[in-house]
Structures are given as structure tokens and as C-alpha cells.
Amino acid sequence: QVQLVQSGAEVKKPGESVKVSCKASGNSFTSYYVHWVRQAPGQGLEWVGIINPTGGTTSYAQKFQGRVTMTRDTSARTVYMELYSLRSDDTAVYYCARDLGGSQLDPFAVWGQGTLVIVSS
Amino acid sequence: EIVLTQSPGTLSLSPGERATLSCRASQSVSSNYLAWYQQKPGQAPRLVIYGASSRATGIPDRFSGSGSGTDFTLTISRLEPEDFAVYYCQQYGTSLYTFGQGTKLEIK
Question: What single string gives the DSSP state of each residue in A66-112?
Fold first, then answer.
């Protein structure tokens, strides 16, 4: 049973950066795409971007382009999301999620537990 | 970008009743790449339905999905206490994955 385990909560000041990790258990780390989704307090789900752990290629929602970077460490079976120039409205729970069957045209089948990022002066 | 609009915003029902949740897309969702997720307070979302009508692993058969093109429905035939949650639809047929705003299913 594949699991995704995320790093712990973070408190940052406006203008700072945050890097959240997502470690996959089990094998086949490079067989699935990993997405990042965020959820502001009391709000809905918002897609941030996707990384292909095999080649490291990425695609980001236009809203976050230039302010987010997703990377991976295949030996550590870990993907990372770094968000820069944080603002108060970046306060949210950030989830990583793995696709169902190894395709970008797959739903999000396995989710991490979420990482709360609080941005406050 | 495909905008998904869910209705109603809140649905108040009793255990044993039938729930019908709607998701309407601003343009046709290719190949019915439409999923439904369940989210309970303090938990990550859980995949319920994908491909508009296929149940995810471990999802009971009281959950069913239907629809095509721009109109999709999630039906829960007989509500159990554990079904009360927020449900989101999502389209994953384009590289701009989008979610609906959610329907809160609450106990009446």
C-alpha cells in the first residue's frame, strides 16, 4: 500500500519561502506523477502543479508560475514543492497526491496527510 | 480553463435517504475525465468516482456516478452516517486540472 508522508507544519513571514516535502513509501516511485493541491482555511481545493518523478518535468497552474518550483530526489523517493514570495493568502494546507495509474490523465488516487503553511507577520 | 459548478452548495438529508449531487462544466469534459472526491474535516480528500462512473477501490456500491459532456451526477443511494462530508468534482482531462467548489452533505 503506497503512502505519501509529508513534512510538518511551517510558519513563515510574508516574503519568505517555504519548501514542503512528500515522501513515497514502497516501490514504483518513478511510475506515477505527483500533484500538489492546496486548500485555504474553509475553502475548496486548488491545483498548484504536477511533477513527473521520472524526468523531473513539471507543469504549474498559471497563477503560481514564477513563484513555485517542484523537484524530486529519486533516491530518497521524495518530491518537493517550494513556494516563494509568500503572502498571507498562501496560508493553506498543501497536499501532495499521486495519480491512479501513471498517467497525467488520471485522477488523484493517493494523498498525503497535508502540510499546514501559515504566513503571518 | 474548465470551470466546474457544483450544486447544491449544501444538502441536508437523513441517514437512509438518497443523495444527488450535481457538477456542471463550462465546456465538455473530454473522455469523461471527471472524478468525485469525499473530504471529511481534518482529512485529505479521498477518491470516490473516476471516469465519471467507475468506483475507486474500497468504495461501497451505494456510490454511483453518471453523466457525460458537461453534466455529471454523484448519487449515494442510501446514506450512511459516515457519508456526511464535503464532495468535490474534478476534471482531469486537460493539463489545467480544476475542482468544483464543493457540496457539503450534512445530517438533517
Answer: TTEEEEEEGGGTEEEEEE-S--GGG-EEEEEEEESSSSTTS-EEEE-
Say yes or no: A84 contacts chain B, CB-CB below 8 A: no
> B92: which chain A residues are within 8 Å (Cβ-Cβ)?
105-108
All three cell numbers of B76, joined, read 449515494
Q: Inform me whether the C-beta atom of residue A104 falls under 8 Å from chain B C-beta atoms.
A: yes
Q: B2-54 pLDDT, tens per residue? A: 999 999 999 999 999 999 999 999 999 988 899 999 999 999 999 999 999 99
Q: Is A47 on the interface with B (CB under 8 A)?
A: yes
Is the Cβ pair A111, B46 closer than 8 Å? yes
Q: Report CB contact under 8 Å: B47, A46.
A: no
Residues B58-107: tens digit of each pLDDT: 999 999 999 999 999 999 999 999 999 999 999 999 888 999 999 999 99
A112 interaction partners in chain B (CB closer than 8 Å): 44
